[in-house]
Specification:
Oligomer: heterodimer
Distance between the termini of chain B: 64 Å
Number of helices of chain A: 16
Radius of gyration of chain A: 23 Å
CATH class of the largest domain in chain B: Mainly Alpha
CATH topology of the largest domain in chain B: Four Helix Bundle (Hemerythrin (Met), subunit A)
Order of helices and strands of chain B: HHHHHH
Strand content of chain A: under 5%
Number of strands of chain A: 4
Shape of chain A: globular
Structural class of chain A: mainly alpha
Number of helices of chain B: 6
Number of domains of chain B: 3
Strand content of chain B: under 5%
CATH superfamily of the largest domain in chain B: NADH-ubiquinone/plastoquinone oxidoreductase chain 6, subunit NuoJ
Structural class of chain B: mainly alpha
Helix content of chain A: 55-70%
Number of strands of chain B: 0
Radius of gyration of chain B: 20 Å
Number of domains of chain A: 1
Shape of chain B: globular
Distance between the termini of chain A: 59 Å
């Protein structure tokens, strides 16, 4: 065993990273659904999940158990192979996209002695293209699921979503060409490193970059990305009022859960991509000067504030379980805060902290949109994609290349 | 056996199996799915040769766009299973021997060309490939673009004719 580890360090390191990231990702997916329900409930003046655990914190666990143990009927006349393949395809593709996303700079951690490694599973030259390849294959899960169910609503939902995803994929791919032109690379790490530096105190993220801020590109990308992930206001594939539940109407139990997880994983991937293409990825918004040295303590400070809030809220919580669980959580957060303030750990935490904070903002925006916006009509959706987003993103490509040509002379 | 050969054999096996399944399957959707498998396996083979960009484009364009359209059309028409027909006399006595002969020819020429007669080294980077496309092969590239434009115009004209 130790021989194998010594001979194939890369394999072992990758395996450990994959396992850790999978566990983190599954937890994040579960709590993203909790976060969404809680958020939407508060937007609509409700409480949201409240019964299972303090603040409904155990709700994802209960949901997971329910998905596992529910009856799983297969409707008659389905195309069996495709019917079972579709949810697997959707979820495995959605999860594999996370493999190329870099969460922090350099190679700060040593899992095995003498083999420093980065906070990323695979650093590939064509990282961006790989992500687009994965998203372009994501259509199959939805389309095949809808078709194989042998039922009208899923078929219509599957058709709608394939049409929608093909249309918006074009705009999404074109909208990031500006970023690729600025960075001169498809490597996600290099794209982020190119955004390093400040200009009169403004961070040189691609959104605000010279010579041409990629505001149009970002607008096109994010709108197309919301449509690509089939979320409100572009959730026509599963419009309840017209199509029951769209492509996954005939799926129950864990197969439904897989579609559900795939949707949330896609949301996270798309938010990560928005962060690293337009918002500087792991880069801090503050310049790395002595005046802003205090920002290194931000992760620890935020965790400490969170711990105090958890503790105070836990002490006056209505149920006895809450009065026990919340202070324990507060202690855990306080411990993490202390760890994050240690020299050595502090520097490693900076990258993931800024990266995840930015990703969280996008996820919040997703939920916010779901709580406030009405759904598009189908013809509006198509007109919007083809007549507005695609020309805008093409114009962005032309403008960016022209500005680059002028500024390099 | 080295790792590269193992990966090659596995990917090539998947590609061949997918191709056979494409012909044998009776349902159009399953044939289309087999074709996607072939394309993804081919992308893996390109990756093995170090042609990252070609592999990515193979998946984005062929598996992700063209085949989605195929599947979309099959779903839209809701095409059912096809009937299997017996081989016609022409196919049996002329087609099969000819196909066999073609396979032999291909095997012979590929076998002869394999060692020492490698194709000119493909540019490995995205930059090299783009430079070749826009300098050495600029005429075929532009002609293909015009061909596609004509096809798009034709599709628009055909779609608009009804009204």
């Amino acid at each position: 065993m130790s021989d194998f580890i010594a001979q194939h360090p890369v394999v072992v390191i990758s395996l450990i990273k994959v396992i850790v990231l999978m566990i983190l990702m599954m937890t994040a997916l579960a709590y993203l659904s909790w976060f969404e329900r809680k958020m939407v409930a508060h937007i609509q003046s409700r409480w949201g999940p409240y019964r299972v655990g303090p603040h409904g914190l155990l709700q994802p666990l209960a949901d997971g158990l329910k998905f596992l143990f529910k009856e799983d009927p297969t409707p008659g006349g389905v195309d069996r192979l495709t019917y079972f393949l579709a949810p697997f395809l959707a979820m495995s593709l959605a999860l594999s996209a996370i493999a190329v996303i870099p969460f922090g700079p350099g190679q700060p951690i040593e899992i095995l002695k003498g083999h420093p490694t980065g906070l990323q599973i695979a650093d590939v030259n064509i990282g961006l293209l790989f992500l687009f390849a994965i998203t372009s294959l994501g259509v199959y899960g939805v389309a095949l699921g809808g078709w194989s169910s042998n039922s009208k609503y899923p078929l219509l939902g599957g058709l709608r979503s394939s049409a929608q995803m093909i249309s918006y994929e074009l705009a999404m791919t074109m909208s990031v060409v500006g970023v690729v032109l600025l960075a001169g690379s498809f490597n996600l790490r290099e794209i982020i490193e190119k955004q390093h530096g400040h200009w009169f105190g403004i961070p040189q993220w691609n959104l605000l970059a010279q010579p041409l801020p990629q505001v149009i590109g970002f607008f096109c990308y994010f709108v197309a990305a919301i449509a690509e992930t089939n979320r409100v206001p572009f959730d026509l594939p599963e419009a309840e009022t017209e199509l029951v539940a769209g492509f996954h109407t005939e799926y129950a139990s864990f197969k439904f859960a897989m579609f559900f997880l795939a949707e949330y994983a896609n949301m996270i991937t798309v938010s990560c991509l928005a962060t690293l293409l337009f918002f500087g990825g792991w880069l801090s918004p503050f310049p790395a000067t002595a005046r802003f040295a205090w920002t290194l303590y931000l992760p620890a400070a935020l965790l400490a504030v969170g711990a105090v809030w958890l503790f105070v809220d836990g002490l006056r919580y209505t149920t006895r379980l809450g009065r026990i669980v919340m202070p324990i959580l507060a202690l855990a957060a306080a411990g993490l805060a202390v760890v994050c303030a240690l020299p050595g750990v502090m520097e490693i935490v900076q990258g993931p902290f800024w990266f995840l904070s930015k990703v969280f903002c996008f996820l919040f925006f997703y939920v916010w949109a779901r709580g406030t916006l009405p759904r598009f009509r189908y013809d509006q959706l198509m007109a919007f994609g083809w007549k507005l987003l695609l020309p805008l993103s093409l114009a962005n490509v032309v403008l960016t290349s022209a500005m680059l040509l002028v500024s390099r002379k | 056996m080295n790792a590269e050969l193992i990966v090659f054999v596995v990917l090539a096996g998947i590609a061949v199996l997918g191709a056979v399944s494409l012909i044998v399957q009776r349902h159009p959707i399953r044939s289309a799915l087999s074709l996607i498998v072939v394309m993804v396996a081919l992308a893996g083979l390109y990756l093995l040769q170090g042609a990252e960009l070609v592999a990515a484009i193979q998946i984005i364009v062929y598996a992700g766009a063209i085949m989605v359209l195929f599947v979309f059309v099959i779903m839209l028409l809701n095409a059912g299973e096809e009937e299997r027909t017996n081989l016609s006399r022409v196919a049996r006595y002329v087609g099969l021997p000819l196909a066999f002969f073609l396979m032999l020819q291909l095997a012979y020429w590929i076998g002869r060309g394999a060692p020492g007669h490698a194709a000119p080294a493909a540019p490995e980077t995205t930059k090299g490939l783009s430079q070749m496309l826009f300098t050495t092969f600029v005429l075929p590239f532009e002609l293909t673009s015009i061909l596609i434009l004509v096809a798009i115009l034709g599709a628009v004209v055909l779609a608009k004719r009804e009204s």
